[in-house]
Amino acid sequence: MADRELTPRIVVVGAGPAGVRAAQTLLEAGIRPVVIDEAARAGGQIYRRQPTNFRRSHEALYGTEAARAQAVHDGFDAIAATVDYRPDTLVWNIADGQVWTASERGYATLAYDALILCTGATDRLMPVKGWHYAGAYSLGAAQVALKAQACAIGARVVFMGSGPLLYLVASQYVKAGAKVAAVLDTSPLSNRLRAAVDLIAQPGILADGVALTRALAKAGVPVLTGVTPLEITGNAENGVNGVRVRLANGTERDFAADAVALGYHLRPETQLADLARCDFAFDAKTRQWLPKRDQDGRASVAGVYLAGDGARILGARSAEVSGRLAALAALADLGHKVDPLTLVHLRRQVASYARFARGLATAFPWPHEQAANLPDEAIVCRCEAVTAGDLRRVVNETGAKEANRAKAFSRVGMGRCQGRYCGHAGAEVIAACANIPVEQVGRLRGQAPVKPLPVAIAPEGEE
Amino acid sequence: MTQGRFVRLAEQDRPSLTLYVDGQPVTAMEGDTLMVAMLAAGRVLRTSEFGDGKRAGFCLMAACQDCWVWTEDGGRLRACSTPASAGLRLSTSQPGASWPTAN
Amino acid sequence: MASPVSVSDVLIIGGGLMGTSAALFLRQRGRSVTLLESDLVGRQASGTNFGNVRRQGRPIHQLPLANRAIAIWRRANELLGADVEYLQSGHIRVCYRERPENIAKMEEYAAEARHVGLDLELLTGNALRARFPFFGPDVLAGSYSALDGHANPRLTAPAFARAAQRAGAQVFENTRIIHAAKQGTDFVVTAEDGRTFRAPVLLITAGAWGNKLSQQFGEPVPLTPRGPNMSVTEPVPYAIAPAVGVMTPVEEETVYFRQVARGNIILGGSTRGPSYPDQYRAYVLPQNTMKQLRQIRRLAPALANLNIIRVWTGIEGYLPDSLPVMGRSATTSGLFYAFGFSGSGFQIGPGVGETMAELIDTGTTPIDLSHYDIARFRRSA
User: Is the CB of A415 less than 8 angstroms away from the CB of C309?
Assistant: First the structure.
């Protein structure tokens, strides 16, 4: 398309709802962006697509979100040939106005005039004794297994944690014919009443959520709230054989299962924002560090924009809007004319999703208090098999209270996942042990590569 | 225990393919990830380096890096993000006790 | 003027390996010590380096200091009450086929080193490959030191600091010194927040920040901040005992690796990156990581099967002759220096601390410090 230019070069990282809408918005303004996505197929995680030889319908895969998923998929399919689309490609570092990519072809660099990071999210995890056993998975994993591979993670699955995904995935399992042993929510039911004032901001999503809970009850799945996880039972050789929890009434109870899906809502993937040297700020409501950005997604670093759940956990619907906003912000900063009314309209939508997300955080809070009660023998860092006791010993014996310091001494966060799954919980363990606010513990600094990088990697085109 | 960990719920009419895990043939389907191929037939992917037992992956979205498996020729593959292919030879433990001092 | 936070026999500015070990050894000599660290102890050059406990390859004149340090490393865990993961598992330095002249240099070095207590074994051809089969075809020869090894830099300086504290030293972290001067017989140093500290003896062990302090005593030095280029692989079964390095005049070819007992292989070297002492930041440049991996593949092709999972760097101070400033001030009595170790201070670190403690306590040391005299920069700076 001759009327669409590659200059200025705008690089969009991630092809989930935020990235797809950002790319569309740029094309509409006459700019052909580069869209780099780690996955083989666009869609992101929540609208993740199955392999091309699978046949299930969008309705079967995405339920109430089928139309939205379809729109994102179709939207990208329509522009895939026009944008500079690079699937199966990891952005592993950012430096001096260039992204560094890695793929089967090797590594390459790409200079950008604007960079829109739509990096998405992963599950947020609070460890529980036994969560390293084979058969313990993240909630997102349970969903990916079903959506992308038509599998259940086990023959009898317990869903444990909190957040909307807990109910969504459990009900998807029931619908697909999997055996769900129980849904165990750490949040007390009373929180949902307190959250109603904010949740009403998105009555449609709220109604869908209520329907999910009803469907689970109707299917005979025990749904318990105010639960305290005590242990994923089993052994190191054969894996999970159940979970042990303390119920809201104080009694302990075991649920037999060969798989556990565990998660406490989501955390954004902020490594690239970090490597791009963006500033972060502590968000007291969700007790995590988030990259700073203005209402349209501008990061603290000029030319870097943040959208979707990679910036704030506001959900897939909001990601579509914030993807557009970030693209418009980039366009405005590059001298394009942007309709101010469109901005107002989009900002208003994001604000409504933000209010809903605040409600979710009230309804399904991050159970930080569990960190203090985690038994010493429980593993905190799965990658390096570092226990809560190891970490507490470091805090007590060396006085390390800062996240990176404690990491240097204890190895918590030093493994292959770079702290994605232990970083938040590790900080809570340190804070509880040192008796300081978790924000004083700080956050793990991002270090390249964002994902493991082969020592064998050579420039694209070489060998 | 020979039963698989993952349970297939749909999409079971795909063409099959055979790969090898620890020398044993494993029947999988076109479109499976390595992880699904291995866990639909078996219980684990690998052994933790630090003595805490067997692992079978965790996040399935290429974030946690828990599911890296070995190929018989010493290569590394992330099982949740690599498509299964016919004839692939995988190992749930690192091949060659003396690696990498032996070429 | 507010009264000083501490008055002690010795003030040390800089809580890296040099400063923390000097603090411990000064306490062992009965001197009261205050150690001031602008950030957290051992966080920059001392904590982010490769971890080589390597004598071979150092200037021959430095070997007595290196030998003194080795003796401390051997008893480090006992001395410090902490495991710093010291492994006396050997060190091999190799050269490539395209530089065969290096064999003669290795032989010459080995002959001289033997007289200073460092035994090296030269290996070529089958003998080299039989012992170390991981080397690539470009590797021509190796010089093996059985009694060198490696340790964990992240743990070492903090362990010295804790040991010094237990022995009675006062350690102040997050204490940025902006002014240092001698008033009468005492040094008075002032932190950013106005706190002052006082002592008749001042030891500056401030690494890349050393020049900022030495110039306050009329002794600027041409110190350049840079950062090490480090990577680490995923863990694999422990199989590589020695630390390995390349002898070459080309910076890009200068790579090294070692495997820690847990299994990860630490890769270092090739081109160093920039660092910014004023901002307390240093960055690994991705192009340097890529150059390093290329050189590692050349040195040990089998490592190509692995993944790197993390890279890092820190802030190091380099001097033009790659030798430190170590010894007495040339302008001010009671003032001592040990900084600018130019990317090769880790192994000798504890020896530097012991030597500086000895020099401060007794006024003399058997270690020849003439090569490190700050006065050598009098004209150039």
Answer: yes
